[in-house]
UniProtKB/TrEMBL annotation:
Keywords: ATP-binding, Cell membrane, Membrane, Nucleotide-binding, Transmembrane, Transmembrane helix, Transport
InterPro entries (UniProt xref): AAA+_ATPase (IPR003593), ABC1_TM_dom (IPR011527), ABC1_TM_sf (IPR036640), ABC_transporter-like_ATP-bd (IPR003439), ABC_transporter-like_CS (IPR017871), P-loop_NTPase (IPR027417), Type_1_exporter (IPR039421)
Topology term for the membrane: Multi-pass membrane protein
Name this protein carries in UniProt: ABC transporter ATP-binding protein
Length: 568
């Protein structure tokens, strides 16, 4: 129970809202349950001659009206207060995710992250809007009336309570096994969600390679695992609930035995027995529901724990104020990077200096660490050793908005959104005119194919640009970067998916764009970088050569070898 309370407290604390309607609703739901049982106590008082018929009638009518009012306004305020609380919680959660290091988000499976941010949040919302009020009433009302009954006859009250500790012990004793089974079930669900997203996204490729059936077999095996894990949850949860309910029901048996013993001894009045006989089942009925609520809450608590694990990931450190840049040059000082969960270093002892107006090309064999240089500049990760400066300021001393305003990015994995071509192009510059957008597209040779689309620049591109070819998506991403007109342009295999004609147009545009700007590009095709001012050759995370095209060919080292391989 302490874990549940702690989880609820964390949600309320993160939401950072008072939610007075929620607490009002919870209070009214408690009063509703009290009003449902109070008539029995009022009747008991009347039968003892302590109240008139008029007083009894007015009291019963008042309790009925109060119960209806508390029920209506209690549920209304619980719902509205719970939704307001969860709106604030969602906002804080998404704000946290938005400030996570981009490298961390790249490592998350889309399906699993989506499951956390949708289904897990929905489960917690259900907790505040439905479960908490019912559980609170199920626990608080019996406790309250047990205290009242204690003053009527403490012996019968203790008899009624006799088996309840055993019932709660049985419920709590199986908690560990139930939680373990629930964790296995949720893990299976998360794995299935990730596999399903990958299957749908890669269905075309799987069919072309005749691997769809094999992938479906993996999904079937995962669904079978979900079935087995779900049965495990039901076995442990159902067994615990049945034992608990048996213990609660046994309290009525003990009550009957105690009443019979007291009546035989002449120590039990008819009115006292009548009161206990009528009230005891109504006091115990909410307790029978407690087991179901607790089982549900434990599952919900695991959802909160998964979200808390996401919230526990440190956000990207940012200064409170923007720094003053002394230029647009980029410097790497003895930079080393090792990715999480990796043993080998991606970069080791990298020293670089890129001046404004220079075009720096980074080349090397696959896995040499070329893209890692750009990942560091984009602050997907921070280096474990050394530092990177922009305009004489450490990147970690820059606010992210300042860094991203100064840079445009074009990576291998093009990300487009389910919107029009125009909306995707304006992503980095929302106020750009249509003429400016069209000019940027003409620079990279994509204006013609856009005009051939059904609605031109207003044509929806589909989810992640699925209605466009790979080369078309790449050219749109380049045009988007050019339109942003940032002083630093970072390109990662920017021309890898375009035809030679478009590649020539893009190279001409990049040459003009480089004037007065810092241009850093990672390339596999060496012909696209031979006009670069400086070419850096990486191998196994280290810089092994640097210079212009002619100098590197004359050195007859790794660059010259790669050039000959591609030329042949």
């Amino acid at each position: 129970m302490s874990g549940l309370i702690e989880g609820l407290y964390r949600v309320v604390r993160l939401a950072d809202t008072r939610s007075p309607r929620l607490w009002l609703g919870l209070g009214l739901r408690l009063l509703e349950r009290v009003c449902a049982i109070a008539p029995f106590l009022l009747g008991f008082v009347w039968l003892q001659g302590d109240a008139s018929v008029l007083g009894l009638s007015l009291g019963l009518c008042g309790l009925l009206v109060a119960q209806l009012a508390c029920s209506h306004y209690g549920q209304l305020n619980c719902f509205l207060g719970g939704y307001a609380l969860m709106q604030a919680y969602r906002r804080q959660l998404l704000d946290h995710v938005a400030r996570l290091p981009l490298g961390v988000l790249r490592e998350e499976r889309i399906g699993q992250l989506g499951e956390r941010l949708t289904e897990d949040v929905k489960r917690i919302e259900n907790l505040f809007t439905h479960v908490v009020a019912e559980l609170l009433a199920a626990l608080a009302v019996p406790l309250l009336f047990m205290l009242v009954l204690m003053f009527v006859d403490w012996r019968l009250t203790l008899a009624l309570l006799a088996t309840l500790p055993l019932a709660f012990s049985a419920l709590n004793g199986m908690r560990r096994f139930f939680l373990a089974a629930a964790r296995r079930k949720q893990h299976s669900f998360m794995q299935a969600a990730g596999l399903l997203v990958e299957f749908i996204a890669g269905l075309r490729t799987l069919r072309l390679f005749n691997r769809a059936a094999a992938w479906q077999a993996r999904l079937d095996a995962q669904f079978s695992q979900i079935e087995r894990d779900s049965l495990g949850v039901e076995v442990w949860g159902g067994s615990a609930i049945q034992l608990y309910r048996l213990g609660v029901d046994a309290s009525l048996v003990v009550l009957l035995i105690a009443a019979g013993w007291l009546a035989n001894a002449g120590q039990l009045s008819v009115l006292t027995w009548l009161l206990f006989a009528l009230v005891a089942p109504r006091v115990l009925d909410p307790l029978l529901d407690v087991a179901a609520y607790l089982s549900e809450l434990r599952g919900l608590a695991q959802a909160q724990a998964r979200l808390q694990a996401l919230l526990d990931i440190p956000v990207m450190d940012e200064p409170l104020k923007s720094a003053v840049l002394s230029g647009r040059g980029v410097r790497f000082f003895d930079v080393s990077l090792r990715y999480p969960q990796q043993q080998d270093w991606a970069l080791r002892g990298v020293d670089l200096s890129i001046e404004p107006g220079q075009m720096l090309a980074i080349v090397g064999p696959s896995g040499a660490g070329k893209s890692s240089v750009l990942h560091l500049l984009a602050r997907f990760y921070d280096p474990q050793h050394g530092r990177i400066e922009l305009g004489g300021v450490d990147l970690r001393a820059l606010r992210l908005e300042q860094l991203y305003d100064a840079c445009s990015f074009v990576f291998q994995d093009v990300q487009l959104f389910d919107a029009s071509v125009l909306d995707n192009l304006r992503l980095g510059r929302p106020d750009a005119t249509l003429a400016q957008v069209m000019y940027a597209c003409q620079q990279v040779g994509c204006h013609e194919f856009i005009q051939r689309l059904p609605q031109g620049y207003e044509t929806p591109v589909g989810e992640n640009g699925q209605r466009l070819s790979g080369g078309e998506r790449q050219r749109l991403s380049i045009a988007r970067a050019l339109l942003k007109d940032a002083p630093i342009l970072l390109l990662d295999e920017a021309t890898a998916s375009v035809d030679p004609s478009a590649q020539y147009e893009i190279q001409r545009a990049l040459s003009r764009l480089a004037e007065g700007r810092t241009l850093i590009m990672v390339a596999h095709r060496l012909r696209t970088v031979r006009h670069a001012d400086v070419i850096v050759v990486l191998d196994q995370g280290r810089i092994v050569e640097r210079g212009d095209h002619a100098t590197l060919l004359a050195q007859d080292g790794l660059y010259a070898e790669l050039w000959r391989q591609q030329a042949g």
